[in-house]
């Protein structure tokens, strides 16, 4: 009898824990979206931030976030995919492989602010890229590489062995087999992982603080010459991203509508992260259906 | 995948190719689109880059972090154990990093204390109680929570937790426990998802054996499943702690940023990450304060390595069993 009562109580406690988790998500999303969406307007999205006055927008920050994300992905995906292929296909058990594995693990678990400090030291100061889009993207590359490596390795390991054997039996080299048979087959799962990691990169702030900077020059959206100092495409200008903006507005903002700006920016940030998440999910579902033939 | 490796190595294609390739010149080996050498160059280059990145991070941060001891002649021991952080004092500035180290530790442990029960409970719910629909609901919840950027957690802390603490416990609301709550919520999904994986990895035969001798569900969970998942559950918690330890902006927004050892959990405090976040941008390279901050960064890096080593150690121990 006693053990049955304990059983009841314990199981209810577990259910309460799960409910608490779900409640945290719902209340957080609810809070951010309800409070934030009211301050999102076309005006908010398409005006530049104003340092002192009310009514500033987040146009530049939003653009910077996407620009840094794209540059990061251009840098990360090829290197990360190749690294993942190494671990899945070429790595022979031994010291070197286990060392590389350890390195990936270390990169994945380093605090992002440490990556930011490294970026400041090497990219900003040593290579002289200054606070810029490029420095930020390089720092985020360090931060994002291990994720892509893992995604790729998992994607390759999930493939059936027959595909590889088929390629090799045709007399193709190992690399040619990977390039023409395995990579296309693993592509969907890699893409899903890449989109998910894009959400992570999009929201990252600590690594960008000391690499992409806390300010943005007056961007001229009519000037698309990448070498002009006020061009949105310029790689070597400082670029405050949306998530850094939320932080800096909250810690040192002196405009009267700090709350509105912070809430609106947070809502925009969360909406985009949710969109990335949703995309990855839908893609995963579609691909799963296609492959399992249901 | 072991079979795969054997097949690759024994495959005639990879044996014969070396002869084929030797017939070609070095240049065409790299330009031929199907050439193995070109692929290998790409692949090995990328893998090597991983090593380069880790080595560079460790090396650069170590060199820069040791500057304050080697160039500026700060005493290492007084730096670590000193409790007074007054870098701006014109006469006799003092650099005692202990309050920050203590703050980081306190936030980490309190966050783990807050997160662990809820996270493990959720994991048990997903993996033991409601295996099908529970996982179907909770998996997306966890994935979305993981995806929410840390600044947003900070903002939520600033606009919900801080006013709540101010109302119910007095003070400004910016204090150690507020920071721990925010970070605790932040690491919840990480701990929960790894814990759920480790519970799912417990073989079903153990559960069946337990039910067969008349154990209730809870007895099975408590006496069989949790001990069997033991070391990986611990890994989940420590991974969460290492994430809590490295979190910067969310903590900085709510912890109050006072460089003193807090006398209670309701006192404002500061951590290694928050002082770096706050001061790094205002200092000039090469100044004493700047060097001291890099030393704090080095401590941060070293403790992150300690976490990594602990996780590896537990993992190895779990494998042996």
Automatic annotation (TrEMBL), chain A:
It comes from the Bacteria. The keyword Transmembrane applies. The chain crosses the membrane at residues 9-34, 40-58, 65-87, 99-124, 261-280. InterPro entries: MetI-like, MetI-like_sf, Phosphate_PstA. Belongs to the binding-protein-dependent transport system permease family. CysTW subfamily. It is found in: Cell membrane. Residues 62-280 form the ABC transmembrane type-1 domain. It is a multi-pass membrane protein. It holds the Pfam family BPD_transp_1. The lineage of its organism: Bacteria, Bacillati, Bacillota, Bacilli, Bacillales. The keyword Chloroplast does not apply. Keywords: Cell membrane, Membrane, Transmembrane, Transmembrane helix, Transport. Its main location: membrane. This is Phosphate transport system permease protein PstA.
UniProtKB/TrEMBL annotation, chain B:
SUPFAM superfamilies: MetI-like. Its main location: membrane. Residues 101-311 form the ABC transmembrane type-1 domain. The keyword Heme does not apply. Keywords: Cell membrane, Membrane, Phosphate transport, Transmembrane, Transmembrane helix, Transport. The chain crosses the membrane at residues 41-63, 97-120, 141-164, 176-199, 220-241, 292-315. It is found in: Cell membrane. Pfam families: BPD_transp_1. It is a multi-pass membrane protein. Part of the binding-protein-dependent transport system for phosphate; probably responsible for the translocation of the substrate across the membrane. Belongs to the binding-protein-dependent transport system permease family. CysTW subfamily. NCBIfam families: phosphate_pstC (TIGR02138). This is Phosphate transport system permease protein. It comes from Sporolactobacillus shoreicorticis.
């Amino acid at each position: 009898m006693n053990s049955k009562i304990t059983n009841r109580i314990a199981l209810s406690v577990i259910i309460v824990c799960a409910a608490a988790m779900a409640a945290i998500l719902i209340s957080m999303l609810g809070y951010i979206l309800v409070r934030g969406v009211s301050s999102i307007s076309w005006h908010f999205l398409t005006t530049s931030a104003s340092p002192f006055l009310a009514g500033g927008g987040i146009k530049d920050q939003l653009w910077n976030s996407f620009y840094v994300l794209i540059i990061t992905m251009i840098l990360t995906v090829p290197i990360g995919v190749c690294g993942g292929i190494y671990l899945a296909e070429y790595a022979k058990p031994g010291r070197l492989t286990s060392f590389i594995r350890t390195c990936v693990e270390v990169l994945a678990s380093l605090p992002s602010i440490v990556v930011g400090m490294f970026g400041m030291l090497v990219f900003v100061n040593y290579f002289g890229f200054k606070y810029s889009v490029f420095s930020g993207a390089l720092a985020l590359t360090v931060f994002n590489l291990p994720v892509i490596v893992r995604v790729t390795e998992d994607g390759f390991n999930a493939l059936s062995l027959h595909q590889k054997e088929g390629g090799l039996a045709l007399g193709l080299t190992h690399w040619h087999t990977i390039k023409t048979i395995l990579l296309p087959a693993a592509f969907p799962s890699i893409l899903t992982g890449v989109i998910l990691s894009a959400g992570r990169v999009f929201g990252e702030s600590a690594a960008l603080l000391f690499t992409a900077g806390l300010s943005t020059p007056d961007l001229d959206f009519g000037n698309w010459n990448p070498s002009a100092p006020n061009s949105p495409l310029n790689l070597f200008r400082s670029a405050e991203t949306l998530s850094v903006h939320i932080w800096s507005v909250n810690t040192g903002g002196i405009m009267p509508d700090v709350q509105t700006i912070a809430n609106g920016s947070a809502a925009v940030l969360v909406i985009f992260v949710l969109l990335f998440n949703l995309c990855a999910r839908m893609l995963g579902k579609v691909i799963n259906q296609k492959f399992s033939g249901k | 995948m072991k079979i795969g490796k054997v097949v690759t190595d024994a495959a005639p294609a990879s044996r014969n190719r070396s002869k084929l390739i030797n017939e070609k010149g070095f240049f065409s080996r790299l330009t031929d689109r199907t050439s193995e050498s070109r692929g290998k160059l790409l692949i090995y280059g990328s893998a090597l880059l991983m090593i380069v990145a880790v080595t560079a991070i460790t090396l650069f941060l170590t060199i820069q972090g040791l500057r304050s001891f080697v160039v500026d002649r700060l005493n290492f021991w007084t730096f670590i154990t000193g409790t007074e952080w007054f870098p701006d004092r014109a006469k006799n500035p003092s650099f005692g990093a202990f309050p920050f180290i203590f703050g980081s530790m306190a936030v980490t442990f309190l966050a783990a204390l807050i997160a662990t029960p809820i996270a493990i409970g959720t994991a048990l719910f997903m993996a033991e109680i409601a295996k099908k629909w529970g996982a179907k609901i909770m998996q997306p919840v966890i994935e979305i929570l993981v995806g929410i950027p840390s600044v947003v957690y900070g903002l939520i802390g600033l606009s919900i937790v801080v006013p709540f603490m101010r109302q119910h416990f007095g003070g400004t609301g910016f204090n150690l426990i507020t920071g721990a709550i925010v970070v605790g919520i932040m690491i919840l999904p990480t701990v929960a998802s790894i814990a759920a994986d480790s519970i799912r990895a417990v073989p079903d035969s153990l559960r069946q054996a337990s039910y067969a001798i008349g154990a209730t569900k809870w007895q099975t969970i408590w006496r069989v499943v949790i001990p069997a998942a033991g070391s990986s559950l611990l890994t989940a918690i420590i991974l969460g702690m290492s994430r809590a330890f490295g979190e910067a902006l969310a903590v900085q927004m709510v912890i109050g940023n006072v460089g003193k050892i807090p006398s209670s959990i309701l006192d404002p405090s500061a951590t290694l990450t928050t002082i770096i976040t706050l001061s790094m941008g205002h200092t000039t390279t090469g100044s004493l304060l700047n060097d001291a901050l890099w030393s704090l960064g080095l401590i941060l890096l070293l403790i992150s390595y300690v976490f990594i080593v602990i996780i590896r150690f537990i993992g190895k121990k779990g494998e042996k069993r």
